[in-house]
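I have been asked to look over a protein record a colleague put together. Alongside the sequence sits a line of tokens, each denoting a local backbone shape. Please read both lines and tell me whether the tokens look consistent with the sequence. I do not need a full report, just your reasoning and any doubts. I have pasted the whole thing underneath without changing anything.
>
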Amino acid sequence: MPYFTTADGTRLAYEDYGTGKPVFFAASWSLAADMWEYQVPYFVEHGYRCVLLDRRGHGRSDRPGTGYDLDTLADDIAGLIEHLDLRDLTLVGHSTGGAEVARYLARHGEDRIARVAFVSAILPYLLLTDDNPEGKPMELYEAAARQFQTDRPKWFADRAQGFYATHLGNDVSPALVEQGVRRCLETAPMAALELWRANARTDHREGLRQITVPALVVHGAADQSALIDLTGRRTAKLIPGCVYKEYPTAGHGLFATHIDQLNSDLLEFIKG
């Protein structure tokens, strides 16, 4: 397992598979690189190099007391990209990973980036404000935070079936659902809590408007974690010329329920 050290001394684990043009996969909130197990072999077999990061507080990386804001996390991604000297890179971010990728572009530009894909991304801005009437009040996010601090395993377990939209007939086994909950619970509780709050507070709208590289937005119409009217559809309207794909039966966990469709759409986009 290779590691690199960030500017603030945090040691982060990463994975690097295959050869060819690089694709960077950024993981969801409370999940680490392992969540991409249904994508990485596919892209390696199609001739791509796949790079994945365990963000701080997640997976095998250090658990520092600070750095769970989107600026620091974006800088961590930049540190790995520079460490490996990645160029002509495709960025793929799911959920919070999409927010990290958007923040990376806003802070570090597009010089090394060929294209970007936002999958079920927590974008563009979740918080209710005078200029964001579609958002939700911070009290709603803080209520969930209190539930984390009371019974975090129950919070994840109660939402696991909805995460995969099993009520729409998506075929996922009980073992896969259990694995997903277990992986989330392996994340440092404080990291999950602080990143939850950072997701709600971070406004990505201006950065999304400035994207000039080819962009793909993929979202499930049945996403209960990132409601499509609040996130995916609004994101697609902000990014100039982006390709938008909506999966009618997909929830947030479409990386596991719609494997063939997602992999095919990503491959078509990357080739393009």
About this structure: The CA atoms of residues 176 and 202 lie 31 Å apart. The radius of gyration is 17 Å.
